[in-house]
Amino acid sequence: MPDGPVVVIADPIDRAALDRLRAGPCRVVDVSAQPSDLPGALADAETLIVRSRTKVTRELLRSAPRLTLIARAGVGVDNVDQAAAAERKIRVVNAPAAATASVAELSVALYLLLLRGLLPAIESTKAGRWERSSHGRELSGKTVGFVGYGRIAREVARRLEPFGAATVAYDPFVTAPVDRTEIVSWEALLARADVVSVHAALTAENRHLLDARAFDRMKPGAYLVNVARGPLVDEAALLGALRSGRLAGAALDVFEVEPPVNRELLALPNVIATPHIGAMTAEGQGRAGAEIVDEVLRAVRGEPLRSLVPPPGARA
């Protein structure tokens, strides 16, 4: 067995990236197929690699007295207790660009499915019906409003230009335009957007940002798309807005509880639900594995890290 720092793999990562890590100056312990073995495997670990399945809680960290690095093979780090990690001076890194193209493409696909009513049309045709009445609306000429305007939302905006759609964004951390997207207030975004597209990171402050009050302020007949984090949307309020006709439809790749438990919401014909697959393309997972293994190997060699996640309170 190779010598060197112990790197524990809690969740599956790209095979090529895993092979490259195993060839490095470290000892790899892969418990991704046996999650119950994770606490025991952490006794000697200096690095822990996770995706979204593993929740790195304060309790779990007690099992890892030697841990110095948590590596998230993906973007969001809300499954990591960053305060507990900071107390222990455990660094946290992620793969911020790995899923950008994958999630951006899914976002545009969901806009088209919703606006054209494609899912019901597909299902009815496969069921033997031939329903060719007026069907859906064009994306051209519509306004897409981004809640959060980071890397992914900007890639979505770039992909929307050929469709002739306008884009606006609300983001308290973005005060000046970076492209053709107009930066607007929260109230203006809700009032103007034909599609409200959620791309914000989840924080303690923005849970249920999209609540009943927000839905009441949205343009009548607008659509909601959430490819970010489920708790940003109050699902009970969303159900009410859809049932009342205030919103024309919703597409959700993420849910408050995963797998989702709100069966009434999922049963609505104007709701498209996917199982948190925004980043789950072959290319996206390959990039995530490659980027996070690069970071881990830098840490093992004592080199500067490139994708450090600032600890709580240190964000700009």
Largest sheet: 7 strands, parallel
Query: Can you give the mean pLDDT?
Result: 95
CATH architecture of the largest domain: 3-Layer(aba) Sandwich
Which stretches of 5+ consecutive residues score pLDDT under 50? Answer: none
What is the count of structural domains? 2
Spatial shape? elongated
CATH class of the largest domain: Alpha Beta
**Portion of residues in helices?**
25-40%
What's the helix count? 12
Q: How are helices and strands ordered from N to C?
A: EHEHEHEHEHHEHEEHEHEHEHEH
CATH topology of the largest domain: Rossmann fold
CATH superfamily of the largest domain: NAD(P)-binding Rossmann-like Domain
Structural class: alpha/beta
Taking the alpha carbons of the first and last residues, their distance comes to 43 Å
Beta-strand residue fraction: 15-25%
Rg is: 21 Å
- Please count the beta strands (DSSP E, at least 2 residues each): 12
- What is the topology, as strand order, of the major beta sheet? 8-7-6-9-10-11-12
Would you kindly provide a written description of the structure presented here, covering whatever features stand out?
- The protein has helices at residues 15-22, 38-41, 58-61, 82-87, 100-116, 118-126, 151-160, 186-192, 212-217, 235-244, 263-267, 282-300; strands at residues 6-9, 27-30, 45-50, 69-72, 91-93, 143-147, 166-170, 182-183, 195-198, 222-226, 247-252, 271-273.
- With 316 residues, it is α/β, with parallel strands linked by helices.
- The chain folds into two domains: 6-98 and 282-300, 3-Layer(aba) Sandwich (Rossmann fold), CATH 3.40.50; 100-273, Rossmann fold, CATH 3.40.50.720.
- The strands form two sheets. The protein has a seven-stranded parallel sheet, sandwiched between helices. Strands 2-1-3-4-5 form a five-stranded parallel sheet.
- The protein is elongated, with a radius of gyration of 21 Å.
